[in-house]
Structure formats: C-alpha cells, structure tokens
Amino acid sequence: MPKYKKNKRRRRHTIFKFRRPDEYVEMTPSDSEDKASKVKKASFKIHNGKKQINKLKRLIFLGVFLAVALVIILISLLSPTGIAEMYKNFSATFSLNSKLPIELYGTETYNVSVHNNYFCLLSDTDFSTISNNGKVSFRDNHGFSSPIMCDSEARTLIFDQNGKGVRIYNAEGLLHSFDYTNSIYAADIARNGYFAVAGKAENYTSMVTVYNKNGDMIYEWYCPEEIINSVAVAPDGKSVAVGTVSVSDGEFTGKIYVLKYNSADAVYKKEYDDKIIYAINSVTRKNFAVVFENSCDIISWKDYSAVTYNSEYDVNFVRATAKRIAIASSRESNDGNYEFNVYNNSKKLVFSFKFDGHINDFQIRKNNIYILSGNSVYLINSDGEIAKTGTANFGTVKIIPVSSSSCLAVGHNSVTKISLQ
C-alpha cells in the first residue's frame, strides 16, 4: 500500500544566506559598463502597451461606421425612389461647364417640369432631360399625337391622351413603356414612383389602374356611371384620388373619391353639385388640390380636411412644389389683372398679391414667384413686391428658375439664360 504521509525533510543550515526572488538587489555598474550605458542611453525607448490605443481606434471606427450608416438610411428614406436612382439622376444631369444656349428639336414646346438641378421638356416630338447648365442627358422620340406630362420629384410620366401609350422616365432615361388596355383619359405619378392611369373600360363607363414603381399592376377600380377625368396618387403611393364628372337633367356633377387598395369602397367621398372638376394637382407632399372654374379645394391626404379658395375670377393656373401651392386667377374679360394666393403644406395662406399684366407662365422657387409676362420676367418676393426683373428673348413660352439672380428662358427652338437685376 502506498504511504500518503508527508515526507520529512531536514532543513540545511549554512552560513550562506539565500535571498528570496522578490527581494530587491541593488546593482551598480562597473566603470566600463557605466561608460557604455551613457553612450547607448539615448537609443533606449520605453514602449507602453497599445491596449488603450486599440480600444480608442475601435470606438472611432464604430462611431464613423454608425454615422455613415445613419446618413445612408436617412438619405434612403428622404429620396423618393431610393438612393441608387437619386444618384443616377444627379450624375446624369451633373455638369460644371455651361453649354447654354442650346437648340431644341421639335417645332413646339408643350410643357416643362422643374427639378433641383435639371428640368424635363416635352415637345410635340421629343421628351428631353436637360441640366440647368444646358447638358442634355438624353432625348427620346415619344411618337404620341397628344402627349401630356405628369411630374414627380424623381420621375416623369407622359401619356398619349385619347391614345394608349404610357412612358415613365427618370433623369437618366426611359424606365417603362407600355400600351394601356383602352383609351387614356388621365394619369398621374407619385413621389415614390407609383403611378395611375385612368381611361375607358369595356363593360363600364371608365376605370383606373394603379401600378407600383416597377410597373406591376396592384389595383383596379371600375366606375359604372361616371367618367373619370382626373386622377392623383398620394406621395407615399398608398392611396389614389379620382375625379369624375356626370350629367343629369342637363346639370353637371363632380365627385372626388379617395381609394385604398384593399377595397373598392372609397375612404373619402365628396360631391360637387353643378361643378366640373378640371384637374387634380398632387405635387405637394401633404395635400392635393381639386381645381374648378372659380374655386380650388386643398384637401389633406392624411385626414381629408379641406380649405376652399373661392374667387370671382377664373382659376387660370395652379402651380405647386413640395411645400408650396400657388393659385393664379383673373377676370375672363380682363386677363391683365391677376390675383395670386400662395398656400403652404398646412393649408395656410402664406401671402397673396395682385399682378398687372398678361401672364404666359409662372414658377415657384422657395418663397419667390417667377412670372413670364410677354418678354419680361419678374421675381416677386414673399411680400408680394417686384424684387427683380429681366428680359427674355422673343418667343419665350416657359421659364425655369435657377437662382435669385437668373432663370432659363425656354422657347420652341432654343433655351437661353437670362439675368435678373
């Protein structure tokens, strides 16, 4: 059996004294070692550990990564159709060198839509995207006999009224092109790229079809007795407003329906006796405007609360940006006396003013109104006063604000830049 008892060890006693390892032993160099250490003293360095430095580097990297990720997420949420398409729109129209003036194709300019650093131009033969410096990013021959343009922040839709053709563009080029089932009455495109087309139906009076930004159909609504003459899609694409007109006993009746895509029943409906809906403007981010002959209803997409603008004059123009909507009206017999009313997204009247003179076109930029009257351009500030003026070339039909001191004059054959003094 093994023994587990502690073995006895005899401790040796000697005259030599052993030192424990933790005891301090003072050592002094010899004369030769002292001289050598003085020579090499300058080359010695004390290296501390890098743990704290590495930790600080990791924290900085993590902070930068989170900041970049947050910026990307924020830009993606703010961009209408995604950060990739926003970059394509910017790169396609970016130009440092001015190429103005430029010549246009086609014989007649129909309409323009204004964006941050570029504009879209629709003529009788072509659709073009042009930067404010005159760079033509692309040009497409649409081939429509009666082209109508609908605008949003990132994309533009054109359709052939009473025809069947539909085309969707961004600043880089053509995205979608197809033929609608029947003749088209109206169309609209939303901020997020969703779009709606209204037209004739085979077994009904009219119908409206809604598509997502990829061009896939997501909703159809049929109108059995009324004709759809206007349509608007909400900025988030989750609902569509439909304007209809019907005749009974010689009297016109207009109706507004707001539809969600999970039901054929309207979530909001309003009837206008003895009124014809001329158009629906849906450019602002929070409201849509229903335009009549002598009035305009500004209705919220969220709770459908409304503000009504009534005028003794005829409503001639309704222009809107993401944050502003301006209504211009004048007497039918005297078009040289215009009244302007500008509203914000809260449906509040921001300012109003009167303008003496004929109006060919006007645009909104920030809090200013740019008016084309004959060959003269006027910048009206938020106080309703003429702050600056400029002279456009003969034959100018549209203007595009570039800054507070300049704008572009668009004619049927050319685009030029003019200064405002």
How would you explain this protein's 3D organization?
By secondary structure, the chain is mainly β. It is 12% helix and 46% strand. It has 3 helices and 32 strands. It has helices at 31-40, 51-78, 83-93; strands at residues 102-103, 109-114, 118-123, 126-131, 136-141, 147-151, 156-160, 165-169, 174-179, 184-189, 195-199, 206-211, 217-223, 227-233, 239-248, 251-260, 268-273, 279-281, 287-291, 295-300, 306-310, 314-320, 324-330, 337-344, 349-356, 361-365, 368-373, 376-380, 386-391, 398-403, 406-410, 414-419. The protein has a 4-stranded antiparallel β-sheet with strand order 1-32-31-30, with no helix packed on it. Strands 2-3-4-5 form a 4-stranded antiparallel β-sheet, with no helix packed on it. It has a 4-stranded antiparallel β-sheet with strand order 6-7-8-9, with no helix packed on it. The longest helix has 28 residues, at 51-78. The termini are far apart. The mean pLDDT is 88.
Helix percent reads 10-25%
Mean pLDDT: 88
How many runs of DSSP E, i.e. beta strands? 32
Radius of gyration: 36 Å
Using the alpha-carbon principal axes, give the shape. Answer: globular
Largest sheet composition:
4 strands, antiparallel
- This entry's quaternary arrangement is single chain
Instruction: Give start-end ranges of low-pLDDT stretches.
Output: none
Report how far the terminal alpha carbons are from each other: 116 Å
Which class do the helix and strand fractions yield? mainly beta
